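Hello,

I think I submitted the zinc ion job twice by accident. Can you confirm which output corresponds to this input? Input:
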Amino acid sequence: MKPYRKVAIVGAGITKFIHKAKETPKELAWAAAKMTLESCNMKLSDVDAVVHGTAPDAFDGVHMKGEYLAEASGGWNKPYLRCYVGGGTGVFAPAQAWLHIASGAFDTCLAVCEEKMSNCQPHPQGAFLTIFDNFLERPLKPNLLWIFSLEMNRYMSTYGLKIEDIAPVSVKNKNNALDHPSAQAAEPVTLQDVLNSEIMAWPVHRLMVSPTSDGAAAVLLASEEKARQITDKPVWIEGVGWNLDTAYWTNRDLCYPQYVEKAVRMAYEMADIKEPKKEIHIAEPYDPFAYKELHHMEGLLLCDKGKAPEDLALGRFDRQKGSLPACPSGGLLGVGNPIAAAGMMKVCELFWQLRGEAGKRQVPGQPKKAVAQAWGDLMQVGTVLVCGVN
Amino acid sequence: MPAAITRVKGKIPIENSYTSGLAGEKTLKAIKEHGEFIGTSCPTCNWTYFPARMFCERCFSRILENDKSVGPEGTLEAVSLVNIDQSGKKTKPYYVGLIKLDKADTKLLHHIKGAKGLVPRPGARVRPVFNSPDKRRGSITDILAFELV
Ligand SMILES: [Zn+2]
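Support: Only one job matched these inputs. Its output is below.
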């Protein structure tokens, strides 16, 4: 796929990610959307179209949640689209907004993602229970952790990895998040803290799991001509990609996220990136679990298969000294995981990092190219955005 | 219970606990404590929302602090006589209507009380009937219905 015209991110905004917000989902979505417009001195009337990303209706407990959130996302009396690919939504939404503009249909598009998981009682896990097959799996009383513990185990056994090789992801991300003003789960944890935390489903420990969160995040996209009028620091979306593997999760080889590779190859081709390991300066891989960051770094072709833990141990992913900082934001493990908004948080991070506006989180050396990725649906979707500055 | 081999029963085991939000809380509190209708209004759009909103959907301004007292009387905009309940069963007929409260630009859905020999019709003036203060709990049902003036 070759884009018809160039598209840039020109503004970004995010609410705090917290365990239980007093605001309604609408109030959260509006806060992020409003902050985004203010960040680039734009008004609602300057927005041509709106894309909203939000995960299951069940979380907010509102059926037709896309419609429910429309005017809070700036969609009143405008062309409006809600998109949803589970956890992958946060990167999928800006990719759909990109399509709106790259196609020539619109000059500006606001992409807003919101999630309020605290509405869901007794726990949002209840909504996930029905993703399992009604005849083969649900009678066994599975929970979501079954998938992740088995996937982590498969990753470990394929490459001979130990829990100690993976746990440092939590240490890095939770510490990175100490510098993120929106962070919910930032903590100065040590490797011992992670290894000593409760084993929820071996080998997954509690501190290797992101929290449930309420929050919203947004970006404003504009065509090249419009972007240059709005800002002198546009962040170009150079490539987008998404891909779906089979819904029969048991039949995938869980040691490698092929759907991520397929998605990122689409994005790299569009962005004309031939050697991602050298050309990408910052990565925001989806990290709801510690092993997932490593898994995804490999799927993004930024590490050799099975070698991400080694790169991690060598400090390659460190924000200050690493050659390829991963999750400088603090990721889902540190900032929090309001599903759709979590992926969008990663896109916001690329925007601030590439503009040199990430404050204490700023990756040194004037990074020029970065990739954000999210993962979700029935654990089989990869969504990717490659951004760059000149 | 049908045989498991052809059919199994299941449900999504969740309940939801909804927040009224910063704006919703303001309106519900005013109803509960003062039997009063507090909305918020947007000076840019000259538009008043009831119940209160945090933001104006037309221009995106924050209007949470811009309280405006509306009603308590209003005008019926549309009305229906309903013969079935939520589950579709036949029930004693009751009126519902859309009410445009005085000074508000939005409409409120509520039960409408008919009166002897008087049928609620669009354009009719109505006023709220509140539950007694000790029984109010900060809910839209603290208003029992709107009655014809
Ligand atoms: Zn307004």
